[in-house]
């Protein structure tokens, strides 16, 4: 049995520095829990003249040459924390090819190349761990791989992007516009200067791709996810949702219907105020899972940040060290994926909310109802707001379940219907009564 397991760390940014801090500040506790000492031996850096303070504080070796880590026989685990798809994917492959166990928090790589990386790790009988890739410090990957493995999971949905959840919370609680909520999030460091990946739903889509692949035991990619962001959600939509008893959240939603197949979506959703996810606010994340045996289960916590994500990464490191100490490595979940069956758009059903700017005159509702009826869409409720300008009024419509195909076709018709001046917004509605 080894006395010390040594690590090669790829990247020493926000999370990488956090991992160094946790492993060193808690080293005695970690050694007891892991079964032996754990040490970061070498860090891969971009520029040796600009060392992070954590490297110098704990006297850790460093290099700007990946081969120094790959060819070091003392290093058993490579921890990849450089982010993005390339060259991270190639670095992970190289580490596995050199017989190194891998821990990563890279959702981008997993969403695109998870299946091939799982297969390579299984072939080499190596551990491949990625708890930090989704949900920051929230333990969700391991429960899906092990604790809930006996369930037939029918649905995984959650708030998996802290930036947009903070923005929607501020729009709800303080009445901020989308633009002002974004500025505030950027000022607090919750949103990047280029927030595209967050506000357009791309970040959430990568995460739901990983979660759905594990939950349904099939290899999804980002191309399988229908993506809508929050950039078209306005303050009045938040206000109308409140009037109707809902809260607006950006959700990743994946469902597995035994008959119709898998759906994977990211979009703004109107949730009933009593739904468990409705009270998850600010930068917090939460993932809601439904299994045939466990029923409903929710996992909640800080979805990002230096130490929360470092906590998840260190948990993976400890788990891998235990496996090394007990010759139990190579137990890879995900290398036995079944062929995926995606649900066709005509079978994917959800209730919807429409906010339309229409002419304030008789016959408008009849024309819109006729458009919906042509696509087999039934209206659950209609609210006409006061005239807003120049003889135009806002019309709020909630439908019963409609297919994504019918929704798309009806939108095309509404956009050219003479009585409709603008389709202002369309949101999905998560309501068991509709």
TrEMBL record:
Belongs to the homoserine dehydrogenase family. NCBIfam families: PRK06349.1 (NF004976). It is an enzyme of class 1 (oxidoreductase). The active site is at residue 207. This is Homoserine dehydrogenase. GO terms for biological process: methionine biosynthetic process; threonine biosynthetic process. It comes from the Bacteria. L-homoserine binds at residue 192. NADP(+) binds at residues 10-17. The lineage of its organism: Bacteria, Bacillati, Bacillota, Negativicutes, Acidaminococcales. It catalyses: L-homoserine + NADP(+) = L-aspartate 4-semialdehyde + NADPH + H(+). GO terms for molecular function: homoserine dehydrogenase activity; NADP binding. Its EC number is 1.1.1.3. InterPro entries: ACT-like_dom_sf (IPR045865), ACT_dom (IPR002912), Asp/hSer_DH_NAD-bd (IPR005106), HDH (IPR016204), HDH_cat (IPR001342), HDH_CS (IPR019811), NAD(P)-bd_dom_sf (IPR036291). Keywords: Amino-acid biosynthesis, Methionine biosynthesis, NADP, Oxidoreductase, Sodium, Threonine biosynthesis. CDD domains: ACT_HSDH-Hom. Gene3D superfamilies: 3.30.70.260, Dihydrodipicolinate Reductase, domain 2 (3.30.360.10), NAD(P)-binding Rossmann-like Domain (3.40.50.720). It holds the Pfam family Homoserine_dh.
